[in-house]
């Protein structure tokens, strides 16, 4: 039986394909993941729209196109094994990553969001995401190096500690800026980092300092 959610996810995925997401495995993961489980009841009718939505605590679940794009870029660069996500938020991006990479590590500074995200992932039988309550600017040194790092909040400058946690040939995708932001791609080549602009974007800020 095809449920309403599958129908809505189906039309969202069609739209993503039209917008340029071409990786079949990314599209399949997006089609299979019930985004409505990651947002509040009152916003359910918007769950499969291609927009960011509030998730409480002043944070947002990212726009599906951006989630798909960041995931596709990681895969295009050969990342398959170990990924670090900064900003777990609702856990939606983590759920997509969990289906496409062997091991996902995700750091969130707001404990209440992290707990909720963990419950959602377990409900979907996704157990390959390890979470940490901490400051994402510092990354996760004990688990480094990572083939891929994806930051889902905008940093005012490139966090050097994250670059250092990239494996040789590894890639980091991160929004940089404040009022105006660019989604950037950094590729590690020995101790040099190649940088490339991907798109103009709008993310909540990567907050420095204290965790709550
Ligand atoms: N990937 C998320 C997007 C959440 S929005 C999703 O799919 O829902 C960005 C998240 O980054 C927020 O939850 C915010 O609390 C978190 N964040 C902001 N600054 C942070 C920091 N310094 N360390 C860790 N997480 C941070």
UniProtKB/TrEMBL annotation:
<keyword id="KW-0963">Cytoplasm</keyword>
<dbReference type="GO" id="GO:0032259">
    <property type="term" value="P:methylation"/>
</dbReference>
<keyword id="KW-0949">S-adenosyl-L-methionine</keyword>
<dbReference type="Pfam" id="PF01135">
    <property type="entry name" value="PCMT"/>
</dbReference>
<dbReference type="InterPro" id="IPR029063">
    <property type="entry name" value="SAM-dependent_MTases_sf"/>
</dbReference>
<dbReference type="InterPro" id="IPR000682">
    <property type="entry name" value="PCMT"/>
</dbReference>
<feature type="active site">
    <location>
        <position position="62"/>
    </location>
</feature>
<protein>
    <recommendedName>
        <fullName>Protein-L-isoaspartate O-methyltransferase</fullName>
        <ecNumber>2.1.1.77</ecNumber>
    </recommendedName>
</protein>
<keyword id="KW-0808">Transferase</keyword>
<comment type="function">
    <text>Catalyzes the methyl esterification of L-isoaspartyl residues in peptides and proteins that result from spontaneous decomposition of normal L-aspartyl and L-asparaginyl residues. It plays a role in the repair and/or degradation of damaged proteins.</text>
</comment>
<dbReference type="GO" id="GO:0004719">
    <property type="term" value="F:protein-L-isoaspartate (D-aspartate) O-methyltransferase activity"/>
</dbReference>
<comment type="similarity">
    <text>Belongs to the methyltransferase superfamily. L-isoaspartyl/D-aspartyl protein methyltransferase family.</text>
</comment>
<keyword id="KW-0489">Methyltransferase</keyword>
């Amino acid at each position: 039986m095809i449920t309403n959610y599958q129908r809505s996810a189906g039309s969202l995925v069609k739209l993503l394909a039209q917008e340029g997401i071409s990786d079949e495995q990314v599209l399949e993961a997006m089609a299979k993941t019930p985004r409505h489980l990651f947002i509040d009841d009152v916003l359910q009718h918007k769950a499969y729209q291609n927009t960011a939505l509030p998730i409480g605590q002043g944070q947002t679940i990212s726009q599906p196109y951006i989630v798909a794009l960041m995931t596709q870029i990681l895969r295009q660069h050969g990342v398959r094994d170990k990924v670090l996500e900064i900003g777990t938020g609702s856990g939606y991006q983590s759920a997509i990553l969990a289906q496409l990479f062997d091991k996902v590590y995700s750091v969130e500074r707001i404990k209440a969001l992290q707990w909720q995200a963990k419950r959602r992932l377990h409900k979907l039988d996704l157990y390959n995401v390890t979470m940490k309550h901490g400051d994402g600017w510092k990354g996760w040194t004990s688990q480094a190096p990572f083939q891929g790092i994806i930051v889902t909040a905008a940093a005012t400058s490139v966090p050097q500690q994250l670059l250092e946690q990239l494996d040789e040939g590894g890639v980091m995708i991160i929004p940089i800026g404040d009022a105006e932001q660019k989604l950037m791609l950094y590729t590690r080549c020995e101790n040099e980092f190649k940088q490339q602009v991907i798109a103009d974007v709008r993310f909540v800020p990567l907050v420095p300092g204290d965790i709550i």
